[in-house]
Design brief:
Length: 169
């Protein structure tokens, strides 16, 4: 797995990879689980996209970026579950909540362009992406589980999505 993260990190200029591995005892048993934590930091136009992936007990991922310059409308993107997509005639795998219709259309295009739509079609990729306001700044936060086949493809698609948003600022 670490080799895949090294290849991913090398594909982005100036990106850095940190890896930690530890053994954690499962409460009430004599079993130890190996927990691997990967942090990928990608600098892009004075912004830092930070990816945290934890394998072992929780298998969760988060991607964060503080918007340092500019403003984007608030939005929330959620994945439609695979059962809904199976029986729905809609082609979109994501629901986008945004009061600005132009920006909503832009986000839909970027989901396709970044490859996230394709990853969602082929895997159980169900991220929640939203803009949060922190004192004096905006942050884009993404959370998703890592129980999907193309874990590295999902990270790459999210980084590409974030860089497109930075380009739009």
């Amino acid at each position: 797995m670490i080799d895949q993260y090294k290849v991913l990190t090398e594909s982005f200029k100036g990106a850095q990879l940190q890896h930690q591995e530890s053994k954690v005892k499962v409460i009430g048993t004599g079993v130890f689980i190996t927990v691997s934590k990967f942090t990928v930091t990608v600098p892009y136009k004075n912004h830092h996209i930070v990816v945290f992936n934890e394998y072992g007990t929780s298998n969760v991922a988060t991607v964060k970026m503080k918007i340092k310059k500019g403003f984007i409308p608030e939005f929330e993107i959620t994945a439609r579950n695979h059962w809904k997509n199976l029986f729905s005639r809609r082609k979109n795998y994501f629901d986008i909540a945004c009061s600005n219709s132009q920006f909503k259309n832009y986000l839909q295009e970027e989901l396709i362009k970044s490859g996230m739509e394709q990853i969602a079609k082929e895997n159980l990729f169900e991220p929640t992406i939203k803009v949060e306001r922190i004192v004096g700044a905006q942050c884009i936060n993404t959370e998703y589980h890592l129980q999907l086949n193309d874990k590295i493809g999902a990270v790459k698609a999210l980084i590409d999505f974030y860089t497109e948003i930075v380009d739009q600022l």
